[in-house]
Design a protein that fits this description.
373 residues; 7-stranded mixed beta sheet; single chain; 2 domains; Beta-lactamase; 3-stranded antiparallel beta sheet; alpha+beta; 16 strands
């Protein structure tokens, strides 16, 4: 990853209201200064345009806005629900929390680590609906290995009837509704021992909002607004809350619901590219960025700690193995390629097929447009 993040030589963009990203004029300058071949990059634009879907693309290399393309009425101010890309925002909040714990900056966070038992901070789940839940750690939740059923059982989101708290359903105290059929499903019993099975589970991830609120006394969205969004110049982001006005309450949706423009999402990716640094502030610990981008378990190595990775270059063969990404429904994508000093963002209203495979030609085209490494 970029080594100059904290020495003052790295570039950081102004907020969009003050001018935003720096740019270059002409194919020659793009090639000489940014090391990008504009003609080769056209393949990425053609791929996105051929989809025929409202969407936005931004490519950043060496701190320069290399290209931005908008389709079907979209523009620089078009914000999208980036769905499961939001999970990477939640993971970043936890990375900051863990670093705060290590530094003992905030007494209420002292002792919060990856291996902290999650239900020690989720009183809403007691008494436990399955005694094995006591073994679930924050690491299990962040790595999708908690044993709580998810997409393998057809569970997407935490849908319930309007009078039922989605968080109550997530901790097993109410029924979930399957997205397509509306059939009821319970996660009161674990589908596997914690750490024994990988399953992409929104009910499991919902636990992270409750735990974060109980550990810090703050909502995920408010915490990140102070610690990340404002410092890096994100001005227009909104983040959905879910829940009812009941004993559990409404809380930040930890697995979806971030609404953001492509330009501002690149800021979040650029923060990760710069190993958590922004100007002379270390907003996210470098150890967390590196750990989150690596395989978090052996059950499904392509998943890190809320970030997807290009394990053995299996997903994106023409993209560096060090690449990692936030990915979500509708082929929303924020991909960081550290070895190329590059961030590529594609957000839109579709397609709905698995992002990791649909986006492969786009990411390959972007990587192959790099002419100076």
């Amino acid at each position: 990853m970029a080594s100059d993040a904290m020495d003052g030589s790295a570039y950081y963009p102004c907020p969009e209201s003050e001018g935003g990203w720096r740019t270059l004029e002409g194919a020659g300058a793009l090639r000489e200064v940014a090391g990008m071949d504009l003609a080769k990059l056209r393949a990425a634009r053609d791929w996105n345009a051929a989809l025929g879907i409202t969407s936005s693309v931004v490519v950043i290399r060496r701190g320069y806005l290399i290209a931005e393309w908008y389709e079907k009425g979209a523009g620089p101010d078009t914000a999208y629900n980036i769905y499961s890309c939001s999970k990477s925002f939640t993971g970043t909040a936890y990375g900051i929390l863990f670093e705060d714990s290590l530094r003992s900056q905030q007494g209420s966070e002292a002792g919060a680590t990856l291996d902290t038992p999650a239900y020690a901070h989720i009183p809403q789940g007691w008494p436990l609906t399955d005694p094995r839940k006591e073994q679930i750690t924050l690491r299990h939740l962040l790595s999708m290995s908690s044993g709580i059923a998810g997409e393998s059982a057809g569970i997407f989101g935490v849908r319930t009837d309007p009078a039922t708290s989605p968080f109550a359903a997530a901790v097993g105290r109410a029924l979930l509704k399957l997205r397509d059929s509306g059939a009821a499903f319970s996660v009161s019993e674990l589908a596997a021992e914690p750490g024994a099975r990988w399953d992409y589970s929104d009910p499991a991830f919902a636990h992270l909002s409750l735990a974060f609120r109980n550990i810090t006394g703050r909502e995920l969205a408010d915490f990140l607004a102070e610690r990340v969004f404002r410092p890096i110049g994100i001005e227009g982001l909104s983040w959905d809350a879910i829940g009812l006005d009941d004993a559990i309450g409404r809380h930040t949706c930890p697995f979806s619901g971030v609404h953001i423009t492509a330009r501002e999402l690149t800021r979040f990716g650029y923060l990760m590219l710069r190993r958590g640094a922004w100007r002379r502030e270390q907003l996210v610990a470098p150890w967390w960025v590196e750990l989150a981008a690596r395989p978090s378990q052996t059950l499904y190595p392509n998943y890190g700690l809320t970030w997807w990775n290009n394990y053995k270059a299996e997903w994106w063969p023409s993209v560096p193995e060090s690449a990692f990404a936030a990915m979500g429904y509708n082929t929303n994508l924020c991909c960081i390629m550290p070895s190329l000093d590059l961030v590529a963002v594609r957000v839109g209203m579709g397609p709905t097929e698995p992002t990791e495979f649909v986006s492969a030609p786009f990411l390959a085209a972007v990587a192959q447009a790099v002419v100076e490494r």
